[in-house]
Specification:
This protein has 338 residues and is α+β, with helices and mostly antiparallel strands. 38% of the residues lie in helices and 28% in strands. It has two domains: 2-134 and 313-336, Aminopeptidase, CATH 3.40.630; 137-309, Aminopeptidase (3-Layer(aba) Sandwich), CATH 3.40.630.30. Strands 1, 2, 3, 4, 5, 6, 7 and 15 form an eight-stranded mixed sheet that branches. A hairpin with a 2-residue loop joins strand 11 (228-238) and strand 12 (241-249).
Length: 338
C-alpha cells in the first residue's frame, strides 16, 4: 500500500537520495535549503510502500518574469523506476502547485533518454518543455582507475597541454573559503561578458556555496600563473560524484593552458576524496562545430570518458498562462541557437 508524506528530516532524505545512482546534488537536501534562502518555497515528498521509503520528489518554486512554476530537478527518484510510485509523487507535486496558484509543473528527469522512459511522462500528461533547465547531454569520466591510467585515457593533445601547464609554472589552489568567491565571481563575470551569456548573480553563488560547504559538498579551484587567476571552477560533490557546475577563465595569459591543469587537479582532488565519477556537466548534443558549446565540449571530451543522454525537460500545464511562457521560452531558445 502506497502513501505520500512530506519529509522534514534531513537524515531520512539524504540516506535515500545519496544511495541512488546516478548521484545528483540537485535533489540533495542542501540544494533545497539553498533555494529556501533565495526566497523560494520548497516541498519534499516521500513515497512509502508498507512504511518503507521507496521514492522521493522535491518541488521548488521558480519565480521568473515570465511566470511562477514548480520545478522538480532530476526527480522524482524512485526505486526500480517504479511507475506507480512516480505517478503518486507527481500527483502530490501537482496538488502543491495548484494550491499555490502555479502555472505549471516542470521536471528535468534523471532517466536516460529512451522511448520507453519518455512514455512514462507522456502517460501522466506531460509534454516536452520548450527549453532545458539543466544539462541533458553530459560528459562523465570514471575516475576509479589510477592516475597513470587516466592520463593514458586522455586525448594526446589534452595530456600534452596538462604537462605543458605544469612546465610553464601554473599552480592549482583548492579552496573552501567563502572569501575566495570574490576572485571566482570576478573571473566568472568576465567570462559571461565575453561569451555573451547571463551568469548567476553573486547572491546565487553565495547561497550555493554557503548551503553546500558545511557538508563538504563544494569547493573552488583556481589555476594561477604569475600571481594571476587564469581559470577557475566551482565543483559540487554529492555521493560518489563530483560535478563541474560552474567554470570561468580570463583572456590574460591566453597562451598558457591553465584550464587543462585545473581539470586534472580537480580529478585528483576528487580521487583523494574517494569519489568514483567526475561529471563534466553539459556538452553539445551534436558534433555541429557551430553549436554554442562546441569548443567547450571538445575541451571536456579530451580528458576521456563517455556521454550520458537524459530525457528532455517535461512540463505539465496547469493554467492557461502556461502557453505564454511556452512562447517566450521558444523564442529564447531559438535566439540562443540551441
Amino acid at each position: 500500500m502506497l502513501s505520500i508524506r512530506e519529509i522534514t528530516d534531513k537524515t531520512v532524505w539524504e540516506n535515500f537520495v545519496v544511495n541512488q545512482k546516478p548521484n545528483t546534488f540537485l535533489h540533495g537536501w542542501n540544494w533545497g535549503e539553498m533555494q529556501t534562502s533565495l526566497g523560494e518555497k520548497v516541498v519534499r515528498y516521500g513515497c512509502y510502500e508498507n512504511e518503507v521509503l521507496t521514492g522521493i520528489a522535491m518541488g521548488i518554486t521558480v519565480t521568473a518574469k515570465r511566470g511562477k512554476f514548480l520545478f522538480c530537478p532530476h526527480g522524482p527518484i524512485v526505486l526500480n523506476n517504479n511507475t506507480e510510485q512516480r505517478e503518486a509523487l507527481f500527483l502530490a507535486l501537482k496538488k502543491f502547485a495548484l494550491e499555490n496558484g502555479l502555472a505549471f509543473l516542470r521536471t528535468s528527469p534523471l532517466e536516460l533518454n529512451s522511448d520507453s522512459n519518455l512514455a512514462l511522462y507522456k502517460k501522466i500528461g506531460m509534454r516536452p518543455a520548450p527549453i532545458h533547465m539543466h544539462a541533458e547531454t553530459m560528459w562523465v569520466l570514471d575516475i576509479k582507475p589510477t592516475e597513470e591510467e587516466l592520463m593514458k585515457g586522455m586525448r594526446k593533445t589534452t595530456r600534452n597541454l596538462v604537462r605543458r601547464a605544469e612546465r610553464d609554472g601554473v599552480t592549482i589552489r583548492i579552496s573552501r573559503d567563502a572569501r575566495d568567491l570574490d576572485m571566482f565571481e570576478q573571473t566568472y563575470k568576465e567570462t559571461a561578458d565575453r561569451e555573451n551569456f547571463v551568469g548567476f548573480s553573486r547572491k546565487y553563488l553565495e547561497a550555493e556555496f554557503s548551503a553546500l560547504v558545511n557538508d563538504r559538498q563544494v569547493f573552488l579551484a583556481f589555476a594561477e600563473y604569475q600571481s594571476d587567476v587564469i581559470s577557475t571552477a566551482l565543483i559540487t560533490v554529492y555521493g560518489n560524484t563530483g560535478f563541474y557546475h560552474q567554470g570561468a577563465s580570463t583572456r590574460k595569459h591566453a597562451k598558457v593552458p591553465g584550464a587543462y591543469l585545473l581539470q586534472w587537479e580537480i580529478i585528483r582532488e576528487l580521487k583523494r576524496l574517494g569519489k568514483d565519477r567526475y561529471n563534466f556537466w553539459g556538452i553539445a548534443p551534436t558534433d555541429n562545430p557551430k553549436h554554442p558549446w562546441a569548443g567547450l565540449s571538445l575541451f571536456k571530451q579530451g580528458f576521456g570518458g563517455y556521454q550520458e543522454d537524459y530525457l528532455h525537460a517535461q512540463d505539465l500545464p496547469l493554467k492557461p498562462s502556461y502557453w505564454l511562457t511556452y512562447i517566450i521560452e521558444q523564442i529564447r531558445r531559438k535566439k540562443r541557437g540551441y
